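Exercise 7b. Backbone tokens:
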């Protein structure tokens, strides 16, 4: 079976339910039910990006941020929508920030946010790609799980999107970085230049290891598998094939719910 025979994991996205946003009270209730009181966290000068936000009360928002040293953190941002407020215009995706926050439990309080600059605002295809990597972080990482290496990879990818240089290569490299955080790629034999692989579950498995199962699984030519493992996507033909392989691998970890970005973006084929 060749790569053209694989089923695109985005095909089932039309049946996905609309996402819902948790309320602040619901998040705090969840934290209260967790048992022992959480330790009060006080964080200063933390690099962060806003992954998503939603309204809370008349002039405030709840924001979920990706921080470098503390992973994903949910925060209340009081007065974010108030004209002339200190957070006005700052709580937006893809804007590099330095923040201070504190609090216990699932919902922290954002106290300081400073825009670092240095990134051109995303637009068009780059903006869609940015929402794609945001959803990958939201779906495939755990709250409050520090991932400094992934944060750096995320920052590099946003920079590539903003500059419009080697965007597809940057997306594929980010996908592999994220998969490795999940424990992917542990097979010592997979990814050799001279052996074809198959996609089995969330792994690339050498054909010789898959045995009789190989005939029923999506085939990945040796050159493509090697490119994925080494993150060398300089060949355009291999780059396209690697995109299809990574869709299958990521689809396994995301599960049946899929990615909302695939449902809402007509330009999904670019990813």
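Sequence design result:
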């Amino acid at each position: 079976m060749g790569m053209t025979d694989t089923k695109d994991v985005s095909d089932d996205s039309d049946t996905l339910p609309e996402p819902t946003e948790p309320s602040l009270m619901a998040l705090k209730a969840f934290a209260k039910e967790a048992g022992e009181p959480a330790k009060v966290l006080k964080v200063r000068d933390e690099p962060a990006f806003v992954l998503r936000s939603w309204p809370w009360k008349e002039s405030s928002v709840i924001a979920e941020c990706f921080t470098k040293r503390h992973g994903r953190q949910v925060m209340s941002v009081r007065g974010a929508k108030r004209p002339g407020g200190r957070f006005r215009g700052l709580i937006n995706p893809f804007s590099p920030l330095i923040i201070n926050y504190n609090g216990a439990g699932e919902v922290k309080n954002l106290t300081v946010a400073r825009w670092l600059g240095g990134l051109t605002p995303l637009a068009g295809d780059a903006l869609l790609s940015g929402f794609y990597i945001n959803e990958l972080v939201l779906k495939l990482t755990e709250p409050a799980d520090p991932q400094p290496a992934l944060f750096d990879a995320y920052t590099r990818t946003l920079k590539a999107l903003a500059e419009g240089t080697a965007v597809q290569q940057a997306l594929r490299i980010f996908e592999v970085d994220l998969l490795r955080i999940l424990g992917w790629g542990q097979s010592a034999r997979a990814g050799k230049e001279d052996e074809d692989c198959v996609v089995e579950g969330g792994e690339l498995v050498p054909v010789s290891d898959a045995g009789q199962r190989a005939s029923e699984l999506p085939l990945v030519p040796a050159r493509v598998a090697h490119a994925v493992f080494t993150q060398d996507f300089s060949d355009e033909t291999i780059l396209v094939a690697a995109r299809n392989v990574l869709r299958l691998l990521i689809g396994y970890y995301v599960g049946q719910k899929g990615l909302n970005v695939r449902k809402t973006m007509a330009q999904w084929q670019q990813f």
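Instructor comment: The radius of gyration is 20 Å. The longest strand covers residues 41-56.
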